[in-house]
Amino acid sequence: MPTGPPSATPKPEPSPTTTGCGYQCPAAQYLASNYSTVTSRLSRDNAIRRPRGGRPTAPGEPRHADPVERRGVDVVIRTIEPPEVEACSRAASLAFSQPFDKERFEAGLDTVEPDRTLAAWEGATVVATAGASTFRLSVPGGHLGAAGVRGVGVVPTHRRRGLLTGLMRRQLDDVRGRGEPLACLWASESRIYRRFGYGLAVLGLGWEATRATADFVPGIPVHLPVRLADDGEIRTAMTEVHERLWRTRPGMVDRSPAWVDYRLRRRGDLSHALVDGPSGVEAYASYQVSPGWGVGGPEHELSVAEALAVTPEAEGTIWRFLLDTDLVRTVRAGFRPSDEPLAWMLADTQALRRRVTDALWVRLVDIELALSGRRYPADVQMVLEVSDAFCPWNEGRWLVEGGPDGARCTRTTKQPHLSLDTADLAATFLGGVGVGPLVRAGRITERAPGAAAHAHRALAWDPPPWAVTFF
Predict the structure, then answer these.
(1) Burial letters for 380-411: b for 16+ Cβ neighbours within 10 Å, e otherwise?
(2) Which structural domains are found in the chain, ordered by start?
(3) What is the pLDDT of residues 302-328, one digit of tens each?
(4) Which residues are catalytic?
């Protein structure tokens, strides 16, 4: 197996290739030829209309060449072979300025898809990476194929050369070629991905509570039996309970056995509890208790790695169990839904100290398939005028018609009700981000009276999206 890129060959001039929707797309020609060579001269500056040399020049500021750009050095972008996975992972760790964790790498090895993992090679060295996992993402009323983008990074010595743009270009064309209407990711820095058409579609919640103040409102059902579980039992529960939620709540990706195993292995030494209900296991929690002692006695901290429930009584029961753990002073949880049910169970709502976080970003790779593939809570008929500089096949006016039983999205020449960028359409796609706030923020333009309110109602969804699985 090769451990580096093939010998560089002269890069042919790309000839436009006509896509199914009539867009003359040079990127399609690159994809057909497996993107044989991409040079460092293919700069991000061209894709986002910046001056060459990296960041935009401020008014009155003299322009300088990018200090790290070395012209004439070929960089090859290609998918990797299985023996190259570790080199790619090491480069990603370097890009994130963190040490390579061999144990964590080995724990997640079965989740890596080499044929969906891109690396930029300079000679025998990986200088940038972008991977993807094959998922089904839950959307309002259904599920759609989605690329779970992960491990995206450029090593410090090769930034501002257009490598990220080259990787994103290649990756989105590949996603489209696979027929997946969506891509999604967790962003390390939120300002990076909007220019590639990603919108923040899911908000998350992190919180902590002091056990002494976490009593419930009278009448909250908490009486189901709870039992501790070993790794075998929790593995089954993580699969079955998660799937029941995945079928009804937007924002969740499906979990293969490899992903379940990875979540258990990467989190270290966890305890597990199961709640049994009429339909079997109806809730579970994976958590860790960190001991601590102060002058006033025990100060243990309980950190919840994951807690899922499929019924209100199972939800109340599992949280009552966790909050009643002896010797614990503080309970913490992350990756929680924006509509956290626990907040409404507590007698003192201020006992839950909450922090809203960015969670999942979504990209509509194929607007027609995406908007046709979700459901709408009420009858909808609206024309959207979409701008999409990075994936021009999405540009234009789209008529969305449908309701609770199905929908279709087709091109149209009718006058638009709303004009918006593809990233803002993606933000509203899962029903958790409203059209109204984006109109008030100046991100969406209303072209017909009442259109924003109509679109706000049409795109909303209950329950709101929840991103549980970090990839």
Answers:
(1) bebbbbbbbebbebbbbbbbbbbeeeebebee
(2) 17-53+71-180 (3.40.630.30), 204-358 (3.40.630.30), 367-421+434-459 (3.30.1050.10)
(3) 999 999 999 999 999 999 999 999 999
(4) 193, 471
